[in-house]
C-alpha cells in the first residue's frame, strides 16, 4: 500500500491543474513530487528553501492576494518552528492556508527529536479557527486533502503519517463515524489508531468511534454515543496524550462522566529505534491499549 504522503503530490498537482487559485509553497522538502507541476505552473509552485518562517509568511502573502496556498514540510518544521508566523501571518491577518505535514509524531525515528512533533495539534489548539484532519488511510488522506483545499479561505491542518489502517472508511471532513456499538464505554480512535483500537477492544462491550477530523471536535457524536454506550470515555490519539480531553469534557460538561486520554507520552525517548518500538514504548500497540482500556473501564466491559 502506498503512503498518505505518496498521495499528496499527485492529488495537489491535479488540484493545481483544476483550480487557478491553488498554489503550493515548499521548503526544500517534497519538491521532487512537484517537478511536473512546477513546469506547468511555475508561478504557483514556490520553493523557499530551508526557511520555514518564510514558508508560512509567503503562504500568507499568497492568501492575501486571493490564492489558496497548500504548504508542506515535516510537522516539526511546519507547526513548531514557525509557530509565530502561523499565529500572526495566518491567524492575526485572517489569511487562510492548508498546512500539510509529514512525519507525524515519530514516523522517522532516525531523524531524531528534531523531526518529531507529538505536540503539533495541541499547539494549534492555542489558536482560534483551525480545522484539523487526521486521516487513517491514504484514501482518506486524498479525500480530506480535497476537502481542505475546497474549504474557502479557512485555516486547515492535514496531518499525514506513514502509520495507516488496513482499510479506508468513508470520511466527510466533519463527523465521527461509529464503527462498533457497545454498552459499557466509548473509545474514540483518531486516524491511524483505529486498527489498534479495534484489536484492543475485540470482545469488549464498548462503542468505538472513528475520528479523522478532530477540530472542530464532534461533540454531538460523542454525546450520542455515551447516551447508549455509557459515560466512561477513552480517547486514543496518535499525538500528545490528552490533546482532546478538554474538547471531550466540554461536550459532556453537563453529564457525569470519566475520561482517559491515551496518546504519545511527554517523556522524550532518546534512542532512535524503529517506528513500531516507539508505538509500543508509548503504549499505543494493541496489547498495551487493551490493558489500559480494560483497566480503566473495568470488568463490566467484557461481553
From TrEMBL:
GO BP annotations, alphabetical order: isopentenyl diphosphate biosynthetic process, methylerythritol 4-phosphate pathway; terpenoid biosynthetic process; thiamine biosynthetic process
Cross-referenced Gene3D superfamilies: 3.40.50.920, 3.40.50.970
Pfam family, one: Transket_pyr
Keyword Transferase appears in the UniProt entry: yes
Cofactor: Mg(2+)
Enzyme superclass (EC): transferase
Keywords: Isoprene biosynthesis, Magnesium, Metal-binding, Thiamine biosynthesis, Thiamine pyrophosphate, Transferase
Cited SMART domains: Transket_pyr (SM00861)
GO CC term, one of those recorded: cytosol
GO molecular function: 1-deoxy-D-xylulose-5-phosphate synthase activity; magnesium ion binding
Residue ranges of domain Transketolase-like pyrimidine-binding in the record: 2-167
Pathway note: Metabolic intermediate biosynthesis; 1-deoxy-D-xylulose 5-phosphate biosynthesis; 1-deoxy-D-xylulose 5-phosphate from D-glyceraldehyde 3-phosphate and pyruvate: step 1/1
Chain segments annotated as coiled-coil in the UniProt record: none
Domain of life, source organism: Bacteria
EC number: 2.2.1.7
Family: Belongs to the transketolase family. DXPS subfamily.
The protein's assembly and partners: Homodimer.
Protein known as: 1-deoxy-D-xylulose-5-phosphate synthase
Naturally occurring in which organism (per UniProt): Streptomyces luteogriseus
